[in-house]
TrEMBL record:
Residues 142-416 form the SAM-dependent MTase RsmB/NOP-type domain. InterPro entries: MeTrfase_RsmB-F_NOP2_cat, MeTrfase_RsmB-F_NOP2_dom, NusB-like_sf, NusB_RsmB_TIM44, RCMT, RsmB/NOL1/NOP2-like_CS, SAM-dependent_MTases_sf. This is Transcription antitermination factor NusB. The keyword Transport does not apply. The lineage of its organism: Bacteria, Pseudomonadati, Pseudomonadota, Alphaproteobacteria, Acetobacterales. It comes from Paeniroseomonas aquatica. Coiled coil: none annotated. It comes from the Bacteria. The active site is at C351 (nucleophile).
Amino acid sequence: MSSHIGSPTRRAALAVLEAVITRRRPLEEALDALPKGIAPRDKAAAHRIAAAVLRRAGSLDAVLEPFLRREPPSEVRNALRMGAAELLLLGTPAHAAVASSVTLVPKPFAGLANAVLRRVAEAGPAALEGLDAERLDTPPWLWSAWHAAYGPAVRALAAAHRTEAPLDLSLAPGATPPEGGTELPGGSWRYPAGTHVTALAGFAEGGFWVQDAAATLPARVLAVRPGEKVLDLCAAPGGKTAQLVAAGGQVVAVEREPKRAARLRENLARLRMAAEVVEADATSWDAGGALFDAVLLDAPCTATGTIRRHPDVPYLKRHRDIAPMAELQRKLLVAAARRLAPGGRLVFASCSLQPEEGEAHLAADLPGLRPFPVRPEEVPGLAHMIVAGGALRTRPDYWPEQGGMDGFFIARWRRA
Ligand SMILES: C[S@@+](CC[C@H](N)C(=O)[O-])C[C@H]1O[C@@H](n2cnc3c(N)ncnc32)[C@H](O)[C@@H]1O
């Protein structure tokens, strides 16, 4: 990061950190709430600084720790984290990083900020060496839960959250991928982290949509055939709806949030795809007796499988959020099962790494349904991700050499 970054950028980054860390507001909302006049380039730079702090706050605090005698106000702590992130992670020249962070803090703390950040600058990136970064940068409740679920792999999993995820695209039938991508097993195209999808040739023409490679799996294993009646529950923004339509399904897409339903319609319009969009709560939606050959339930969840893309997730979620979410998923699963025609398939997916929102659902009591395990030949190159019960478990530390994947749990049933 260069020294041209002005104070509006850093003020914006601090406002974003205060919103996410101190007030537990989503990162996207905090970025949207920035003053309208901020230049896109400054906003992008602010986003980059804030994301670096969110990913590495535990490590940055460990570096700052020896230089702080008492806990500073949150605004000062976040300005110090920003200064340390610029010095140790983002390569900002020392004078710029120190001076700008000092101007961000209230006057009485300027001396402290200056002294602390000079010490951090002297130590340089070596200050991060020898720290247990994976553990420091993971909230203890998530570390314990992942350790219980995945054993020693928790370390690789946590390490995967340090880097921003690449951009994956799914292609519309017959479309050519934009330049600069690599094809992944399963047919997604991967572009370097930071690629702006709207800037890619073919975006406006609807040649592709953004979708992590792991997020394509639920619709892939639902294996819709042309002409089938398909129900997509919890559908917005519509990545999976687009896959189901592309496969030739006659899709009804149900979404509860009006704003998100509008986005789903916009996305389908850009892709020149047709689906019936229903704005309703899927637990109580009256389908008028309609039954479907295939039902996809991409349930709302704590989203702990998407931390690479959403570094605010660990700040927003708590252990106590899991049980109510799992309960809602169970209700949605029962509602989804009721919509299946005889012989029909049901796929459940969640982008959570928490077993309560995944593996535990295999034990769900779904009258008339039996498990329909995923077979290795259905997921070439990914067969090692098939777990007990024939479900799929993907994790951010999988495919390390290709840049990882989101964490998903995917299970399938069939009506007798
Ligand atoms: C994981 S996201 C879905 C992502 C989407 N399937 C895709 O591939 O782009 C979950 C969605 O479910 C919606 N939702 C949550 N509870 C719902 C409910 N009871 N009924 C219908 N939609 C719901 C949320 O608003 C959110 O848009």
